[in-house]
Amino acid sequence: MLYIIDILGTIAFAISGALVAFDKRMDVFGIFIIAFVTSVGGGTLRDLLIGHTPVGWMNDLTYTYVIIASTIFAISFRSKLNYLRTSLLLFDAIGIGLYTLIGLEKGVELHLHPILCIALGTMTACFGGVIRDILCNEIPVVFRRETIYATCCIMGGMAYFALGALPIDQNIVFLASGAIIIATRLLAVRFKIALPNIYRD
Amino acid sequence: MLYIIDILGTIAFAISGALVAFDKRMDVFGIFIIAFVTSVGGGTLRDLLIGHTPVGWMNDLTYTYVIIASTIFAISFRSKLNYLRTSLLLFDAIGIGLYTLIGLEKGVELHLHPILCIALGTMTACFGGVIRDILCNEIPVVFRRETIYATCCIMGGMAYFALGALPIDQNIVFLASGAIIIATRLLAVRFKIALPNIYRD
Amino acid sequence: MLYIIDILGTIAFAISGALVAFDKRMDVFGIFIIAFVTSVGGGTLRDLLIGHTPVGWMNDLTYTYVIIASTIFAISFRSKLNYLRTSLLLFDAIGIGLYTLIGLEKGVELHLHPILCIALGTMTACFGGVIRDILCNEIPVVFRRETIYATCCIMGGMAYFALGALPIDQNIVFLASGAIIIATRLLAVRFKIALPNIYRD
């Protein structure tokens, strides 16, 4: 079940990467690399920082195959991807929910402080997109004020530790904090919720 | 004492990062991340290259707290930060002096060649700013010809090994080479000293 | 012999990096850093991902000296480098051939799947240029549709495993797949061979 969600998230991230690469008019190789780093870049950075090498995607080729298939799919049907926009948004929200918790639990395994665990989770969910934007020569979208993204991951991570301190089954903690990330993200997109504007104009 | 200097350097780097992020009109999350990578990015890259994981800032949360506080401070008082420009420049110079020596001594511990030790020191001091500029979609300022920055670190590193070969107490070697970095940096800013211009126009 | 080829590749990559840095009007320090990452960036990323630390260039200072010498050479004779363009292209083709196979064989040593080995080889050959372009604030040229570059590495890598499955001496496999990379790259430049255009206009 978790594995299926993970694959859905990988597909959503890969397609989002491919779409950005299209806009930059990259060639097929470039599109694949951008799809790849968008999907696995956050987890790779996390693994590097905590010293888990060879990094994650080298231990299970399924991700590589899924990303190759997603890239081919995106290239073939790119003119029709607009119809899928809502599905993709949903997959993406599910993806960041799961990626955050996967990253966070890696930190828990290493007995790191909750703040660092939440940082690792947020990094896993958000830094694939950051690397994608750097390679595409853009200021990372997650740093700009449009709708909250990283904030959802951070809130979900805090919920994970808050709920974990209560006498609740660990699986329920996992599901509930994942649901918080997904729900806040979808609500943020629906109602255009952003961080407070600190600029005057 | 060293620890206090280290914290002052962290504050100066965090505020310099936050200021660049302001100019790019990032949101609060983006400003914090830029402040964070400016402060700890150089040391993180160094730790990755030599295989010291989990990387530095994961072993002492003080840096994270200081950077959060510096970011909040910078956001709150950004219109008044101009008055602090001289203090910030001083902290920054002290920061690169100390960061260079910390990075250099990590190399010495690993019995690396002096050239590599100096490279690690310079990386520790300068690459936080490089990563900041990449994330902000700018050519890194340290590679451009305005005033010398990395050169001060390299000179201080060379002084460290030159003085270390003399029969001088190691603490004095440390202080003297740190002072060289700070002094050359401040003089370079004051007198606009740059590397020789290799371009004709 | 291999070592000499490796050094020739390092020189070609360093000079190509220095030339890009010139165009961005960087100072001497910036030019050296760009030359350095162009040469060793791909191998460094590979070593980080598989956990080989300290990374490659820290174990043999020859590369650093060669890159320093190449940078000085490029700065001194930059107005005459046009005459060398053909030699540089040849060195570069030889370089990516060898770098691909070096990276690929690192994967084989770790008993990684051939797909991952080819990925490591391609990364070794191509990602120095990617990091160079990121630092110079450009979309990486290897992702854009002009002539094939990474594709040559991937084809050579596939040839390595295809030939390796036949009863052929391993040295011949190495030479033949290296020759395929070099030949396809030179032919691609000569005849402007690119990946199929997926854009309509």
TrEMBL record, chains A, B, C:
The membrane topology noted for this protein in its Swiss-Prot or TrEMBL record is: Multi-pass membrane protein
Q: Which UniProt keywords apply?
A: Cell membrane, Membrane, Transmembrane, Transmembrane helix
Q: Any idea where this protein resides?
A: Cell membrane
Top-rank lineage group of the source organism: Bacteria
Regions crossing the membrane = 6-22, 29-49, 61-77, 84-104, 110-135, 147-166, 172-191
Q: Which GO terms describe its cellular component?
A: plasma membrane
Q: Give start and end of each Glycine transporter domain.
A: 4-77, 90-163
InterPro entries, sorted = Gly_transporter (IPR005115)
PANTHER family the UniProt entry points to: INNER MEMBRANE PROTEIN (PTHR30506), UPF0126 INNER MEMBRANE PROTEIN YADS-RELATED (PTHR30506:SF3)
* Protein family according to the UniProt entry: Belongs to the UPF0126 family.
Q: What is this protein called?
A: Trimeric intracellular cation channel family protein
- Naturally occurring in which organism (per UniProt): Aestuariibaculum suncheonense
